[in-house]
Amino acid sequence: MPMASVRGLNINYEIVGDAGPWVALITGGRRGYQEFLPLAVKIAAEGFRVLLHDRRNTGASDIELEAHEVEEATWADDLRELLGQLDAAPAFIGGSSSGARTAIMFGLRHPDATRALMLLRVTGGAFPAKRLPEMYYGQFIDIAKEGGMAAICETDTWRERIESNAANREKLMAMDAGEFISTLTKWKELFEAGANLPVMGVTEEQLGSLRMPTIVIPGNDNTHSSESGRTAHRMIPGSEIHDLGLDDVDVPLIPYPDWAPYEPEIVDVLTGFMRRN
What we know:
By secondary structure, this protein is an alpha/beta fold. Helices cover 45% and strands 15% of the residues. Helix 2 crosses helix 3 (98-109) and helix 4 runs antiparallel to helix 7.
């Protein structure tokens, strides 16, 4: 897959489709873009060009641990630069979970480059506010305190980054454990500052300021409750919502690949929305 130099880092990306309006899809968690490849293929078959990429610190892209802002803000700015290099802006910006948070941040920071937002599995509520800071940051702070950077490199999350991009091991091992802990502590604090908002990481005022067309497809687990999606819909002026008819399930997380049976409906809804906008 091609690499782009984006703000000093190598960012791994792929374009699916040869012609048509540009769409950027952003996966959730710290997962690489491959999770969205089946969805991208289906959307491209309807006449769109889909940009997939590994955000910094995910997939095969470079690691860069600097906690100036929440990661979603940094990811949004990286995507804006990548779209500019590809002459792909303005684009439809869509994502699931942390990808949806990044899409919202993109719309706030780069409205000129946003044709519309497509928000899947919006995050909000007390459960993810408690779970995600520990999952993204807290557990690795504790591991680094106990075993240093060698122990960090052996965790599943960071080992995946090394296996996808061997240079990431050298970068991690060159980092002082105290610096790593300080950076993740700052990220955790920034993340927690917005974790208890009805839509995680974004104020009602910010959601109310979005003026681009937006569609929401709610999730159905404890991290992405259907109510979080409905809240986003209520707070974003003029937004649309599509209910897949799924009951909320009392589990921490339903992996996105488990939504594969619903992708034909998702594709119909998203492509219809994009054609209208």
